[in-house]
Amino acid sequence: MRVLVTGGAGFIGSAVTRLLVLGRGAEVLVVDKLTYAGDRRSLRACEGRPGFDFLEADICDRERMRATFADYRPDAVMHLAAESHVDRSITGAADFIRTNIDGTFALLEAARAYHSSLAGEAQARFRFHHISTDEVFGSLGPSGAFTEMTAYDPRSPYSASKAASDHLVRAWHETYRLPTLITNCSNNYGPYHFPEKLIPLVILNALAGQALPVYGNGSNVRDWLYVEDHAEALVSVVERGRVGETYCIGGHSERRNLQVVEAICDGLDARVPAGRPRRELITFVKDRPGHDARYAIDCAKIEAELGWRPQQSFETGIAATIDWYLANDWWWRPLREQRYAGERLGLPG
Ligand code: NAD
Ligand code: DAU
After folding, report:
1. Which H or E run includes 56?
2. Which CATH number fits domain 2-194+224-252+293-311: 3.90.25.10, 3.40.47.10, 3.30.70.60, 3.40.50.720?
3. Is this model's pTM higher than 0.85 or not?
4. Is 215 in the pocket of ligand 2 (CB under 6 A)?
5. Is 135 in the active site?
């Protein structure tokens, strides 16, 4: 398979690219603008491998995308490029509207022109896989879970921009018969996670003996999925998913934020004792505006149709993640020193 992966220098995109190149022997062209969240070092294991290529480009550049499709001639597109951090979207939404909405539009148009230029088996094989989030469904109460039938109800600038992009993808399928697939996934964690998100931020702050900021009272719930399990799910969907369908992906691992932070403190204390328990660093801070209370995913559809299930539990996944950050400061230290040192984001003035 020859796959064009947008956002392949990011957290999930690099996991997908590593799986495709190293695990499946696929040919991959990564298209990435290398924003603050993108880093080619996350693709170090793929560099120099036969069939791996990298193009630094902006997905909003319509002509460039059109030419890239025509030159590369992919069998599939896996579209992960996005602005992904909710707090940054609260501080300023412009880049989210541009990349997540205009960028998806530019890619859809490039894919449509390319798809209509194909014939026979090549046309029948082509897929446009849009990678999205469970946040488009809004916020759950204490019970229940999102499914593929849940109505859209996005509540942050980030989730609204992702919801808009999902609608565009569905429209291109219905109107132009572009062979699309959409996946909506819960919170990922694992290696190469940019240290603005809760889990890597807490690991690195805790290692540095700094305060561990918990928004509100820490009772918000997320459903955590190890990133390599997500990459496996995405590759099964692009290979075997039914055209025009949506698949929800989750980890069967709901945890309150405070539980997550405490698990990291205890995991670090067991490996690198600090003299006093790191739980003492936990600091409750002003809540995120519009903070969604709870996300949970019912993944019955992908499990039944494609036989996918997460391999990691939260306990094994968080242990592997802590071990990875302890062993790979070559990756995160330059990011903390040069790009983002952990200051609070997302409190509008
Ligand atoms: P990330 O922020 O780590 O990576 C995003 C990548 O996109 C970066 O490499 C960045 O350089 C690139 N990019 C941004 N703007 C671009 C542009 N205009 N042109 C080309 N490249 C651009 O994000 P992530 O956490 O890996 O998320 C990947 C996708 O998965 C996103 O679409 C996100 O909405 C979705 N998603 C993420 C999660 C999660 O928990 N992180 C969960 C569900 C869905
Ligand atoms: O659900 C999928 C989404 O998960 C993805 O679409 C997003 O791209 C991804 O960033 C993630 O969004 P969240 O907002 O849930 O992730 P974040 O790591 O920012 O926050 C997780 C929870 O932890 C959330 O309830 C807010 C809280 N939090 C976050 C930070 C950064 C804190 O309490 N303290 C923090 O410092």
Report:
1. strand 52-56
2. 3.40.50.720
3. yes
4. yes
5. yes
